[in-house]
């Protein structure tokens, strides 16, 4: 399972509309599909995504890409 073409188009259109209105704040989108034991995650933006299980365990599904917190990201962009 994953994003359909319609879902992908919806995210692209939302992003374009947001940019055309000259909004300067950040954008964060998370879509999670859970089918049986398979979790598919799509995200845009710099916020974290954490999954809590029925047993109250927490799983970090995304990385923090803020430059002040992620040395690998600073290296990637040449800082």
Automatic annotation (TrEMBL):
Residues of the PPM-type phosphatase domain: 12-77
Gene3D superfamilies: PPM-type phosphatase domain
Pfam families in UniProt: PP2C
Matches recorded under InterPro entries: PPM-type-like_dom_sf, PPM-type_phosphatase-like_dom
Name recorded for this polypeptide: Phosphatase 2C
Origin species: Thalictrum thalictroides
């Amino acid at each position: 399972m994953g994003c359909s073409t319609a879902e992908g188009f919806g995210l692209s259109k939302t992003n374009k509309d947001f940019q055309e209105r000259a909004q300067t704040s950040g954008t964060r989108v998370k879509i999670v599909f859970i089918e049986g034991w398979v979790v598919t995650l799509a995200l845009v933006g710099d916020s974290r995504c954490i999954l809590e299980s029925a047993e109250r365990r927490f799983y970090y599904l995304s990385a923090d890409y803020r430059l002040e917190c992620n040395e690998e990201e600073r290296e990637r962009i040449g800082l």
